[in-house]
């Protein structure tokens, strides 16, 4: 109903009684701040709608809109952003918006305009950089170094090792560090120079080339040896990394471990505070649970294919008995696409959890996703780690219904087509680890 009468006069609004319950604006903003995330990932479409509110709410909603800024289209994108900020006539309002930026994502090269953007963000907490050039100019490095002292969370995706190790020493105050060297094609240099004296609480490293795990050793040794006492979460995607190296480095306080697999040759018994382990490629060889310490309460596995389920369950049962039933949850990431798949692996793990009163979580990740993908950086390190796939987690009733109704035998022609597709996919899909350079 319109608030104006037919004669154009505004209708009288009912007076709000004194002492009537009303939410303060700060509470509404907190509600909107939580609601803007769709399964831990910010929804920018929703954020834009938040800014289209009444005039009194507009400044608060715009602060939410500017909390996460993504400038991933190079210098032209940054110039457009600078022009938009400069066009705001109210200088105080412009400063409020740039001061609201807490997470900045950029694809950058050696130009100084990127330093202009970073210097503008006075309250920046998380910086996400995609470095597709070979090196920075000295004056740009000097400007970045002045701002880097306040950055606590850093994600770096580098296409060359030279610019990576030119950038990392600028950030000695980083506590949450995510390094992605998977696109790098140049040779890994000899890491004879010391790492910054940071005290990392979480370290993520991704590189599918063998022999590049030495970056993890470099980040936790020398001047950075203090990180071995503060490190709580470690996520490594590298085929040559062995979790046995953690006790050798002195990183025995890790609570969450994210590795390709744990084998019989590994020894994790010194990690007495380890509560969670996630095996992203638990095949060839199959996963081993005997090396895990008794403190483990949460195990996450990715799809088990072509392995002996009986052997795995026997090892898992032995681990459960050895730890006195300390296991609380078992999470299994696995796609369910083929209706002819009998789901023997899901059935075996589900029955084990039912027998031993362990929570079973089945997550069906989106097709083509990688383990650990899109897990946001956070200063709050929780165990088990929260993942952005929670909306794809099946409930207990859904798992039971899936196991009862999934398998349906098809016609001979349909089975032939399905097997042909499966053979074609097997022949063409190669895991990045298989392409690793020696």
UniProtKB/TrEMBL annotation:
<protein>
    <recommendedName>
        <fullName>F-box domain-containing protein</fullName>
    </recommendedName>
</protein>
